[in-house]
Design goal:
This protein has helices spanning 7-52, 54-59, 61-73, 86-94, 98-121, 127-135, 148-157, 185-197, 202-209, 213-225, 243-250, and strands at residues 124-126, 166-170, 173-177, 199-200, 230-232, 239-241. With 251 residues, it is mainly alpha-helical. A three-stranded antiparallel β-sheet has the order 1-3-2. A three-stranded antiparallel β-sheet has the order 4-6-5. Helix 5 packs across helix 6, helix 5 packs across helix 7 (148-157) and helix 6 (127-135) packs across helix 7 (148-157).
């Protein structure tokens, strides 16, 4: 007759489980310590790099984009200080303020450019045009060489401040929306068509999107009220033009 498992066997199993648990905790502690050491080394090297190459970071858009991507790879947000949080202040001090100051100053310029053009474009400006205006010195202060990547990062840095500024994609273009209104699906569809054709008419929307006339007219009326389109009443049928398309083709 087979004997049952005794208390001794139970105690041995319990002891073995405790040993495994203890060994696992020791491994986790060792790994955490190793990761902490590696992070400290990365932070130190990043700090030295940002100070040594501060001039290049501020003046060279390509170099700046690569530096930002390097920060992202190791989980560092060089723009965090814009939020005013304690961890943001830490990174600002560690990076010597060069990166943070650059994007904060650029964000101020982006806000100025968007506000100065809002009456013309209804608060919807392409990232490319914003970059051109900043580079041409049409914002606060003189011109500065920036990339579209810089503009995108500057707009994102405004988010923690509760800003109405946001990035939206219309067709192939990335746009900066500087008004609190959200675009619905119909409005976005018409704006995408404007990026391609330059203008739309109510009958054109009806024919290509299979919309009822009332639906097409409502959308263009909304865009017109917000200055997102300009109207041309001299054509056989009223045309609604994209301000951005007209400026690009007038150059």
């Amino acid at each position: 007759m087979r004997k049952g498992v005794g208390l001794g066997a139970f105690d041995r199993r319990q002891l073995t489980s405790q040993q495994y648990a203890s060994h696992g905790n020791a491994l986790r502690t060792e790994q955490l310590s190793s990761l902490s050491t590696q992070l400290s080394v990365f932070q130190s090297l990043l700090h030295e790099f940002s100070i040594t190459h501060a001039k290049d970071i501020r003046s060279n858009p390509t170099f700046r984009a690569e530096f930002a991507r390097m920060c992202h790879t190791i989980g560092v947000d060089p723009l965090a200080s814009s939020s005013g949080k304690k961890e943001g202040n830490f990174w600002a001090q560690m990076l010597g303020g060069s990166v943070n100051d650059f994007y904060f100053e650029l964000a101020v310029r982006v806000v100025e450019v968007c506000r100065s053009t809002r009456a013309v474009n209804g608060g919807l400006l392409s990232v490319g045009e914003c970059r051109d205006r900043v580079a041409a010195g049409r914002g606060i202060g003189g011109g500065v060489e920036v990339s579209e990547d810089d503009i995108v990062r500057a707009v994102k840095s405004l988010k923690p401040l509760g800003s109405d500024f946001a990035l939206v994609t219309l067709g192939p273009q990335q746009m900066i929306r500087s008004v609190p209104k959200e675009l619905n699906t119909d409005q976005s569809t018409v704006l995408e068509a404007l990026q391609v054709l330059g203008y739309v008419t109510v009958s054109l929307l009806q024919a290509n999107l299979q919309w009822e006339r009332a639906r097409a007219q409502t959308v263009v009326d909304y865009l017109l009220a917000d200055s997102l389109v300009w109207v041309d009443s001299q054509a056989a049928e009223t045309e609604y033009w994209s301000p951005m398309y007209m400026r690009v083709h007038d150059r």
